[in-house]
Amino acid sequence: MTNIVILTGAGISAESGLGTFRDEGGLWAQHRIEDVATPEGFARNPKLVHDFYNARRAQAAEAVPNSAHLALAELEAKLDGQMLIVTQNVDSLHEKAGSVSVLHMHGRLNGALCASCDHRWEAPLRMTPSDACPACGATSTRPDVVWFGEIPYHMDQIAEALSKADVFVSIGTSGEVYPAANFVAEADHFGAHTIELNLEPSAGASRFAECRFGPASEIVPTWVQEELAR
Question: Where is the Deacetylase sirtuin-type domain (predicted)?
């Protein structure tokens, strides 16, 4: 029985057409993070923030999983043991690929949150500042995503999973955003074998016991097949 925890970042979805922070000309490049990804930005201009996430939501709705997402779903289905995907991504490509055990530590584009009463529900494709919460009626609806300065979701569950992991794999992450950047140290502390699968070395590549570099659509399926052949 093998217990695997996998962290995924923007790099795994990039080949499905969903841009990263650093893509030139992408959605992020057209806006300041302070304006569209902070509570303060939302307070200043909720329409701008909703328009930004409406565009991201529409883009994500059209995206399809690539071979890396599909390989992880296959691994979960066939693994003799347990597997958990912890994703920093707010798209649903892991679920579209068939993965079941997925924790979205930064929330989900297809989720809506009431800033007044914390009620959550499935977001419509387009959200506006005038949308009323179905629970309390307040017009303080926001995307259910974790913005800069906010605490990521599911941290207790993630910590417990890392403490039990035999293998920890980081896929497509920059290694610069905490607390996720420290997961490798936590997993290593509890004795897990740590692996980085990335397009290029991350900021924390030296902290991993094993590293493989290349497009996620190529190196992830290869690693999965090796793991299933054990």
Answer: 1-230
CATH label of the domain that carries residue 186: 3.40.50.1220
- Could you confirm whether 94 is annotated as catalytic? no
Residue 173 assigned to a binding site: yes
196 and 128 in a common domain: no
63-81 residue pLDDT tens:
999 999 999 999 999 999 9
Q: How does pLDDT run across 93-109, given as a tens digit for each residue?
A: 999 999 999 999 999 99
What pLDDT, on a 0 to 100 scale, did the predictor assign at position 30?
Answer: 73
Question: DSSP letters along the chain, please?
Answer: -EEEEEEE-HHHHHTTT---TT-TTSTGGGS-HHHHSSHHHHHH-HHHHHHHHHHHHHHHHH----HHHHHHHHHHHH-SEEEEEEE---S-HHHHHT--SEEETTEEEEEEEETTT--EEEPPSS--TTPPPTTT--S-EEEEEPPTTSPPS-HHHHHHHHHH-SEEEEES--S-STTGGGHHHHHHHTT-EEEEEESS--TTGGGSSEEEES-HHHHHHHHHHHHHT-
- Rounded to an integer, the average pLDDT of 193-214 is 96
Rounded mean pLDDT of 3-21? 89
Q: Is 41 annotated as a binding residue?
A: no
Domain range spanning residue 189? 1-18+64-106+152-230
